[in-house]
Design a protein that fits this description.
single chain; 473 residues; alpha/beta; Rossmann fold; GMP Synthetase, Chain A, domain 3; eight-stranded mixed sheet; 29% strand; AMP-dep_synth/lig_dom; ligase activity
Length: 473
């Protein structure tokens, strides 16, 4: 199946969507109950109910759903209704969802259960038995205008808590198809997505790649453990799946004693340690191992390495660009090895939110440092200082400092990245305040907890008193 056969007038064809959702299954029994697998029409009911909301063309719809078939039904149903979906973390509270809605111009929210009063609404619209919607109150003139066939993808903390990238669904499906080709994915494959669907890697490289290829999809979700991953692969005859580098490292440390019949495992993100690659190649559950690199701004996938076919000196590489993708290096970013990678592709975002379109259409400066050898293999060397990956989650530290700085009595907030006694990345928040007592500490924690996901919160918060002369300013 090609994108030409599943898109009409810029959006996926309804028949293709319903066929794809009808063959998909939820791996987790709890998710299966939420998704109504006993009622085969549940995804179609959601698609039809979203159409019945009467949203204007280009209306932005926030979808805060846990991983499952119904999440994808809400995503595709929003597109089919001529609206614009944005998947947000299901654990996000009302404050964070409201902030995203205000920043992007949200018109509706879809979630399993909604207290409408939290969003200035009075009416809840059921979307089948397992999720519902509210129409968001008018917060003034929208900052952005959207068109049917567009999608907003959140940027995983790369540029801020309320930052995203505007893409066309046609470009996302094109990127998904290129990724599927690079890993040899077939129509007869069964694909397991266990990564969050609100991140571009899970949505595009797994769910949409399965849609483009006509593969069967099995939907699981966090938390990840090697045992549950291998068990799901065996139970559903999964042949293709993907992990983050942190998940792949855990799988390498605890390889399954009874290997599953996985043909393809892909790893997306930054470079994977050579020792973990070796362990996965010798004892992992897969026959083929692919290391990949991408970023939401690029659509998202950029490069792929077939590690099982490469000599050991290339195992720390993320491979070469996908067809249709070009890269080059420009001046180094501050101190450190490598130079900044620039990506050119027809799948690059249309614009950043908040922000503007790329200065050069079809081009994005990644902010990531790379070396590229004479054969075109890309070696990841590091990221900009204000973005850090903690426990597999990317955190944009300026957003954390801003949240703390908005608390009354806070004079200055500083973040420090460090490694704990287990050599894992962490960050601390040091705050200069008028009154470093327990009340101020509690107010800072409340301000952070209202917006930040648990994995995004600082591991240490230290308060110190502002100098007397600062109080007089």
């Amino acid at each position: 199946m090609t994108t030409a056969g599943i898109i009409t007038a810029g959006v996926p064809e309804r028949a293709a969507v319903l066929s794809f959702l009808g063959s998909a299954v939820d791996a987790d029994p709890a998710a299966a109950a939420r998704g109504g697998t006993a009622a085969a029409g549940a995804p179609a009911d959601v698609v039809d109910a979203i159409a019945g909301l009467g949203l204007p063309p280009g209306a932005l719809v926030l979808i805060a759903m846990p991983n499952g078939r119904l999440t994808l039904a809400a995503f595709f149903g929003t597109l089919l209704a001529g609206a614009v979906p944005v998947l947000v973390p299901p654990g996000a509270g009302a404050a964070r969802i409201t902030e995203i809605s205000r920043a992007f111009g949200g018109a509706a929210l879809i979630a399993p259960r909604i207290d409408p009063a939290r969003y200035g609404a009075t009416t809840v619209h059921p979307l089948g038995d397992r999720c519902e919607a509210v129409l968001l109150g008018d917060a003034g003139e929208p900052r952005y205008r959207y068109q049917p066939g567009e999608v907003v993808m959140m940027t995983s903390g790369t540029s801020g808590i309320t930052s995203g990238c505007l893409h066309g669904i046609d470009a996302m499906l094109r990127n998904a198809g290129r990724h599927a080709t690079s890993i040899g994915q077939r129509a007869g494959d069964t694909v397991l997505v266990s990564l969050p669907l609100y991140y571009s890697y899970g949505l595009v490289a797994q769910a949409l790649a399965a849609f483009v290829r006509g593969s069967r999809l099995v939907v699981s979700g966090p938390p990840f453990t090697p045992a549950s991953f291998a068990g799901t692969v065996r139970a559903h005859d999964v042949t293709v799946s993907s992990l983050t580098p942190s998940g792949a490292a855990r799988l390498a440390a605890e390889p399954p004693a009874d290997p599953a019949g996985l043909r393809v495992l892909t790893v997306g993100g930054d470079a994977l340690d050579r020792a973990h690659v070796r362990t996965l190649l010798t004892a992992g559950p897969q026959r083929e191992l692919y290391l990949t690199y991408g970023l939401t701004e690029a659509g998202p996938r950029v490069t792929t390495l077939a590690a099982h076919r490469e000599p050991e000196h290339r195992w720390t590489s993320v491979g070469t660009p996908l067809p249709g993708v070009r890269t080059h290096l420009r001046e180094p970013i501050g101190d450190g090895p490598g130079a900044e990678l620039v990506v050119e592709s027809d799948t690059v975002m249309r614009r950043r939110l908040p922000g503007s379109a790329p200065a050069v259409p079809g081009t994005v400066a990644t902010g990531d440092r790379f070396d590229i050898d004479d054969d075109g293999y890309h070696f990841f060397r590091g990221r900009t200082a204000d973005s850090v990956i903690v426990g597999g989650e990317k955190v944009w530290l300026p957003s954390v400092r801003r949240l703390a700085g908005e608390v009354p009595g806070v004079r200055h907030a500083r973040t420090t990245v460090y490694r704990d006694d287990r050599d894992e990345l962490r960050y601390s928040l040091d705050v200069t305040v008028d009154d470093p007592g327990p009340r101020t500490a509690a107010e800072i924690e409340r301000a952070l907890n209202r917006v930040l996901l648990r994995a995004e919160r600082p591991h240490r918060i230290t308060l110190c008193q502002a100098p007397t002369e600062e109080w007089r300013k």
